[in-house]
C-alpha cells in the first residue's frame, strides 16, 4: 500500500512539475514585415521581446501574393512546438490572417498598422475606401517582371515623408535603399478565410499613417473586435521602427 501511495505521489509530483514547466514556456513570436520593408524593420521590437524572454522569428515575407506568402509563413508556424503569436505589419496583416487559419497553435494575432481584410477584400481596396492615404502619388513607375507581373517601390526621395516621417532622415534613407518591392497582384489579391474572426486580435497604429488611412485602421480594428487598440500619437506607418516599446508591449499582452 505504501509503495502504491509513494508511486502516486511521485506521479503527481511529475505532473505538477510538467504543468509548471508548460506554464513557464513563452509563446514564440513570429514577426511578418509588409511591403516596402524587410525583416530588419522589427529590430527594435526583437531586442525588447528577446530581453523579456520571448523566442522570436522575424520571417522573410516574399511579397508576391497573399496566398503564397501566407503558405510561406504557415510552414514556419507548423514547425513551432510552442504556442505562436503572429504579428503582421501593413500587407503582412492579410498574410498572418491567412497563415493562422487552421493552425491551432496560433493563440493570437497582432496587427501593426496592418490590413485585416474580410473575405473578398483586398489591401488596395481597403486603403482607398477611406480618405487620407497618399501612397499612390509616392510610388515609382512599376517595374516589369519576367512573368508578366509588376513590382512596386516607393520613390526614394519621397520615402521619408510617405512611409517613415517619424524616423530620422538618415535611417529613412537606409530603409528607402533597402526597401522590398511588392507586386501589384499581391495588393489586389482578395483575402479568403480571415483568422481574425476566430483568433483573438490586437491592433496598434499611428494617427499620422499615410500608407493606410487611420480611419481604415480604426474600422478594421473595431470590426475584428480588437482586444486592445493602441493609437500612437504622431506615429507613421512604421510604428514598430519609431515606437518599438509600444509595439512590443502590446505583443506581450497578446502573448499572455
From TrEMBL:
What residue stretch is flagged as signal peptide?
A: 1-22
Presence of keyword Signal: yes
The protein's matches in Pfam families, at most eight in alphabetical order, are given as: Abhydrolase_6
- Which Gene Ontology molecular function entries are recorded, alphabetically? hydrolase activity
Query: Gene3D superfamilies per the record?
Result: alpha/beta hydrolase
**Annotated protein name in UniProt:** Alpha/beta hydrolase
Question: What keywords is this UniProt entry annotated with?
Answer: Hydrolase, Signal
The keyword Signal belongs to this UniProt entry's keyword annotation: yes
Q: What range(s) does the AB hydrolase-1 domain occupy?
A: 29-249
Alphabetical list of PANTHER family matching this protein: AB HYDROLASE-1 DOMAIN-CONTAINING PROTEIN-RELATED, ESTERASE_LIPASE_THIOESTERASE DOMAIN-CONTAINING PROTEIN
Amino acid at each position: 500500500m505504501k509503495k502504491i501511495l509513494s508511486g502516486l505521489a511521485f506521479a503527481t509530483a511529475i505532473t505538477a512539475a510538467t504543468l509548471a514547466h508548460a506554464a513557464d514556456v513563452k509563446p514564440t513570436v513570429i514577426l511578418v514585415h509588409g511591403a516596402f520593408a524587410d525583416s530588419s524593420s522589427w529590430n527594435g521590437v526583437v531586442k525588447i521581446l528577446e530581453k523579456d524572454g520571448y523566442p522570436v522569428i522575424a520571417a522573410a515575407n516574399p511579397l508576391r501574393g497573399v496566398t503564397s506568402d501566407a503558405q510561406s509563413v504557415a510552414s514556419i508556424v507548423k514547425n513551432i512546438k510552442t504556442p505562436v503569436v503572429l504579428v503582421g505589419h501593413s500587407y503582412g496583416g492579410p498574410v498572418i490572417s491567412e497563415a493562422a487559419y487552421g493552425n491551432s497553435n496560433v493563440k493570437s494575432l497582432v496587427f501593426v498598422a496592418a490590413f485585416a481584410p474580410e473575405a473578398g477584400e483586398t489591401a488596395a481596396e481597403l486603403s482607398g475606401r477611406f480618405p487620407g492615404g497618399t501612397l499612390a502619388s509616392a510610388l515609382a513607375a512599376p517595374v516589369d517582371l519576367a512573368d508578366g507581373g509588376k513590382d512596386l517601390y516607393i520613390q526614394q526621395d519621397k520615402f521619408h515623408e510617405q512611409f517613415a516621417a517619424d524616423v530620422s532622415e538618415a535611417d529613412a534613407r537606409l530603409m528607402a535603399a533597402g526597401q522590398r518591392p511588392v507586386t501589384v497582384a499581391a495588393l489586389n489579391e482578395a483575402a479568403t478565410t480571415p483568422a481574425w474572426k476566430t483568433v483573438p486580435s490586437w491592433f496598434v497604429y499611428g494617427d499620422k499613417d499615410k500608407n493606410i488611412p487611420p480611419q481604415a485602421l480604426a474600422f478594421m480594428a473595431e470590426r475584428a473586435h480588437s482586444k486592445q487598440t493602441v493609437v500612437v500619437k504622431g506615429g507613421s506607418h512604421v510604428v514598430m521602427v519609431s515606437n518599438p516599446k509600444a509595439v512590443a508591449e502590446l505583443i506581450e499582452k497578446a502573448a499572455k
